[in-house]
Predict the 3D structure of the following.
Amino acid sequence: MERRTFGTTGLTVSVLGLGAGQVGADDVSDADAERLLHRALDLGVTLIDTARGYGRSEERIGRFLSGRRDEFVLSTKGGYGVDGVPDWTPECLRLGIERALRTLRTDVIDVFHLHSCPLDTLQRDDLLGALDAARDAGQVRVVAYSGENDALAWAVQSGRFGSVETSVNFADQWSARHVLPDAAARGLGVIAKRPLANAPWRHAERPVGQYVETYWVRAQALGLDPRALPWDEFALRFSAFQPGVSSVIAGTARVENLERNARALAAGPLPADLLAEVDAAWAREGQGWGGEV
Ligand SMILES: NC(=O)c1ccc[n+]([C@@H]2O[C@H](COP(=O)([O-])OP(=O)(O)OC[C@H]3O[C@@H](n4cnc5c(N)ncnc54)[C@H](OP(=O)(O)O)[C@@H]3O)[C@@H](O)[C@H]2O)c1
């Protein structure tokens, strides 16, 4: 598994990370979650991304992987979800980080993100100060922002964050085109979320009201043809080799897909002619499309 430096943070991450949203779901059994998490590390995945809001994900990572904590970079997110404390307050961040450390059964969170707050929240000095304090106290190694569009651009140029997490896939190229060059030049680590574009090819009909719907509609408009490549491989190789991307956190609760994703990335970047087709389709259809939070 290819490893990459995570910006200038001093951390190193595998090109394939694990998006651990899915392993937090109630309909995934403890046994299946445990198997998936261990298989990820066994395959050489060294970045696991979770959040306060991902159901049982933080708790399962803590329970099942605390004995292998030195094998991976642990990324989580917060700013909300502490009982009795208003969201997006310094107190909520302080208590939320303490809570996450306990739940994740770790002494330090490698990457802690403000989770998709809007620009005016992101710019608040009291919140940024609370993050700096957690880093200075050794609870967090890298202070980060997860988000899109104007807030993401501000986060990168502010100098207050060591890394960012943002959508990067063939149907969501706003960040790759507008922010990642700046992020790379400034030495930020970049975690690419939704790298499979939520796998829209699995739906023959428009998945109305589902999470994947926006990308399904965009994929129809782009009309791409991965030719001989399976769609998952096409999608992941596109995302993982965008300039500036440190790691792609493909989300899955299924060992079979995790293994396919690891194999897909071993093939390297997409051929130049396929990339040119994606570029042309984007120029035709994608100019007005923003990043999906
Ligand atoms: N910061 C944020 O606000 C934010 C927002 C969205 C996501 N995220 C993070 O990013 C991660 C990934 O995002 P995502 O899950 O939304 O999108 P994604 O990784 O683009 O797509 C995940 C979907 O693709 C399926 N899948 C995975 N591997 C596959 C394969 N080889 N072939 C076919 N289908 C495959 C998964 O289903 P199966 O379970 O059936 O494999 C899942 O439904 C999340 O887990 C989370 O950590 C963060």
